[in-house]
Design goal:
- Strands 5, 6, 9, 10, 11 and 14 form a six-stranded mixed β-sheet that branches. A four-stranded antiparallel β-sheet has the order 1-2-3-4, with helices on one face.
- It has five helices and 14 strands.
- It is α+β, with helices and mostly antiparallel strands.
- The longest helix is centred in the last third of the chain and has 33 residues.
- It is elongated.
- The chain folds into three domains: about 80 residues, MHC class I-like antigen recognition-like (Murine Class I Major Histocompatibility Complex, H2-DB, Chain A, domain 1, 2-Layer Sandwich), CATH 3.30.500.10; about 100 residues, Immunoglobulins (Immunoglobulin-like, Sandwich), CATH 2.60.40.10; about 50 residues.
- Keywords: Glycoprotein, Membrane, Transmembrane, Transmembrane helix.
């Protein structure tokens, strides 16, 4: 069985529901607007007819799901308003795996999940060459979503005409990001960094070789200036000879 109620805090509309299921399919459905039961399966017709005759039970169900349930729902919403009614602005970025891949406009960290995102060209919303992803939950309770744009048929010099627009319920200002190659995050490395890395490696190797050469030079000079044991003995013998 599944039962409960929905409350639209903007319009005040309340909807109650009560469903019975069997073997993975609907068996009986309570229609509170017509105050009657619906039998999707022939096997439920007899039960439907019996329940429709019980006016007291119908009145009780209508009270529970259109009055009491919404009151509890409003109470809990008010208690958790600081968390449930919060608004968190997302971080929006452009991603592309390779030059031939679509450009993905990715928004993450937003709350609530009542949000839409789309691509525009010259201010007009695009429908062709666009793939909308689902809104997915993050581990921290916020949400994320992506919208891909296939740019293969658009010349790069026209990319500045495209915009990714993110709209969040309760926020007046849209989050807009221009399709700019300079801000697209990609898996490709920056070709300008390669010469810098090679140059730094060569400089480090040169310094290392220079240091080793200096140490070898100092050691050789020290060996030349230090008298050998034979020379020291000869000098001592000469100094000890009596004067003639």
């Amino acid at each position: 069985m599944m039962s409960g109620c929905d409350w639209d805090d903007e319009t005040g509309e309340v909807k109650g529901y009560k469903h019975y299921g069997f073997d993975g399919e609907d068996f009986l459905i309570l229609d509170l607007e017509t105050e009657s039961w619906i039998a999707p399966k022939p096997e439920a017709v007899f039960t439907k007819q019996r329940l429709n005759k019980d006016k007291a039970l119908m009145a009780f169900n209508k009270y529970i799901y259109t009055q009491e349930c919404p009151e509890y729902l409003k109470k809990y919403v008010n208690l958790g308003r600081s968390s449930l009614m919060r608004t968190e602005i997302p971080s929006v970025s452009l991603l592309q795996k390779s030059p031939s891949s679509p450009v993905s406009c990715h928004a993450t960290g937003f709350y609530p999940d009542r949000a839409i995102m789309f691509w525009t060209r010259d201010g007009e919303e695009l429908h062709d060459n666009v793939d909308h992803g689902e809104i997915l939950p993050n581990h921290d309770g916020s949400f994320q979503m992506s919208v891909d744009l296939d740019v293969s048929s658009f010349p790069a010099e026209h990319w500045d005409k495209f915009r990714c627009v993110f709209q969040l319920s309760g926020v007046k200002e849209d989050h807009i990001i221009v399709l700019d190659p300079a801000v697209i995050r990609t898996n490709r490395g920056n070709p300008l960094l390669l010469p810098l890395i090679i140059g730094a490696a060569v400089a480090a190797l040169a310094l290392l070789l220079a240091g080793i050469g200096f140490l070898v030079y100092r050691k050789r000079n020290a060996n030349k200036n230090t008298p050998s044991p034979a020379s020291s003995a000869e000098l001592t013998e000469r100094l000890n000879q009596p004067p003639q």
